[in-house]
Amino acid sequence: MDLDRHVYGAAVASFFATALLVPFIANAQVSVAPEQQTIEKATVIAVANEHIEPIPGTNTTEPDQTLTAHVENGPDAGKTVTFDNDYTQLSAGDTFYLRHTTSSVDGTDYYSVSDPYRLNVLFGLAAVFIFLVVLFGGIQGIRGFMSLCGSLILIFYVLMPGILDGYSPIPVSIGVASLIIVVGSYITHGFNRTTTAAVIGMIATVLITGLGAFYVVHAAHLSGYNSEEDVYLNFNSKGTIDLVGLLFGGIMIGLLGVLYDIAIGQAIAVEELFRAGIHMTRTQVYRRAIRIGREHIGALVNTLAIAYVGAALPLLLVVQDSTYGIAYAINNEIFATEIVRILIGSIGLILAVPVTTLLASYMLANHRSEAVSSEIHSHRH
Fold it and tell me: Has domain 4-119 been given CATH number 3.30.2000?
């Protein structure tokens, strides 16, 4: 259940992150383009002339259609426009975002489909997620959702503004990652020694893994230019944002979901072992908890790698079809960056087990008798 909650949490986090990043990307596009652009919501009234046509200079074909659409908001609200669409094919009644470009040379207006309207689907999916969290998670699920909201607030109102204001992404990312660990853990699991052991274990693992990630990112000469968004961001910020540091920060934030699950699991395993075996020493508890952790590592490392592979499937197909060989394709920065993300996340996951288990074994050993006696007392009443 912990893993599923974080997978769903990551999906919702990705949704909100995409929604909040749209203005930055749009502004970046406007700043580098000579034309004036507006994005307006529109609805398709009619579709005509649907056909397949070849892409010049290639052996590939693409669908094409002529759309007549009614503009619902923005400067052109109430206007009806007709234009050619060779992007995502739409049907009558579909809602989409219309890109209106006015040429700075002769004032000619151009219209194109920017994106189909997806917010209704995304909000509906988010509503289903929240409903299931409350239905099956109960109070703990609600607290987990509150933790997610707190993490998003820290990311969008502390991390991102800090980076955009010119602060180095590296210390900002480590600081926000630590805050997310503290806030998320205590909101979800309460203020107790078990949670504290997990929190300290996670922060220690983030610091250790962060040092390794910092070295690897620089040793591999990763520039941080992995997508068009990175280019737009560089132009929009006039080169003031350290994209290498931003890449490092993304790796650190992405590491948290994996660390959280395994660190909390190990701390609770140690607590339960102390409760079940009052006669066991710290060393015995540590060895038994490490055994549990090894099974957890085996499952999560595979899950983490498969999750990344699924997200990067188009990239893998490009590698498989590479003209210059697999070695050259893997060496490419886009693919190398994903490999670094996978391996740094896996290393952090592995380190979290012994670090958290060791801390929990020492922090919880002296309080097992109190915990057991209070549990017996509560059962009697």
Answer: no
